[in-house]
What we know:
Elements: E1 14-18, H1 24-33, E2 39-43, H2 55-71, E3 77-79, H3 82-95, E4 101-105, H4 108-114, E5 119-124, H5 126-130, H6 132-142, E6 148-152, H7 157-162, H8 169-185, E7 189-193, H9 201-207, E8 213-215, H10 218-232, E9 241-245, H11 249-266, E10 274-278, E11 302-304
Parallel strand pairs: 1-2, 1-3, 2-9, 3-4, 5-6, 5-7, 7-8, 9-11
Antiparallel strand pairs: 4-10
Amino acid sequence: xxxxxxxxxxxxxxxxxxxxxxxxxxxxxxxxxxxxxxxxxxxxxxxxxxxxxxxxxxxxxxxxxxxxxxxxxxxxxxxxxxxxxxxxxxxxxxxxxxxxxxxxxxxxxxxxxxxxxxxxxxxxxxxxxxxxxxxxxxxxxxxxxxxxxxxxxxxxxxxxxxxxxxxxxxxxxxxxxxxxxxxxxxxxxxxxxxxxxxxxxxxxxxxxxxxxxxxxxxxxxxxxxxxxxxxxxxxxxxxxxxxxxxxxxxxxxxxxxxxxxxxxxxxxxxxxxxxxxxxxxxxxxxxxxxxxxxxxxxxxxxxxxxx
Length: 307
C-alpha cells in the first residue's frame, strides 16, 4: 500500500470504510463537522456490492478492510456502510477492543418521531433488510408508536450509483417502481438505509416532489464521532484526505471525483439519523501514517490498497 505513510505529523488520521463510494456521503458530513481532521477513506470496490453477500462473507471482508486501516495507523474507524455495520460491528469491536469503532444504525427513530401519517418507508440493501439491527430498531421505535414501516430494496441501486448514473433515466425508472407504492400508501418519511442512497436524493425529489422527507445517518454519525474524538483528546490535523481502493484506482477516479464533489455540495441536505458508537479504553498507539497534503481544488489522492 503506497498512499498512506509517515509524514511527521502529531495527529493520526481517522479511517472511513465503505464497500464502495457511498460512504463519501458520510465522509462529507465528517469533514463538515471536523474540517481540520485528517481522513483515510477505503473503498472495497473489488468486492462491491456487499448487499447480496452472505453474513459470513460480509463480516470477513469488513474485518480485512478495517484491519488495513488499523495497521496503517488510523486512530479509529467509521464504518460508513449500513450492510457492513449490520453484520460486522460486534465482530470488529471484539477484534479491536482498544480502538474506537463507529457504525451506522438505520434511522428509524427520527423517522417515527417526524411522521405525520404514521407510515414511513425504508430503502436498503437486501442484506441490511435481512439483518437484526433494522428489525430491532423497528421494534424499539416504530412498533410502540404504532408506526407502519414499509420496506423496499433493489440490488441494482448501488451499482447504478457506483457507475455515476444516480440521475440517469434508468435509475429514475427504477426509483419510480420502488417508491410509488410507498407514496400511494401515504408514507411521508423515507429512511435511506444505505450510504449510496443520498446520491439518489435529487432523482427521488424529481420523481416524487414533496412526497417524502429523506433521512440518513451521515450527519448524526459525524457529530457523534466528533464528540468521541473530543472526549479522547484526539482529532485535529490539517484537513488532509487520502482515498484508497481495493480495485483499479484510475478506473475509479472519474466517478470518485464526481461523487465527491456531489457529496460535498449535498452535505447536510437530508435529515439526521442516529449513530452506533463504542468508546473503548485508551490503548492503541499505532504510528503516524498520513498522506501528503493536497488541495481540494487539485487532483484527489487515490491509490490501491492490497488487503
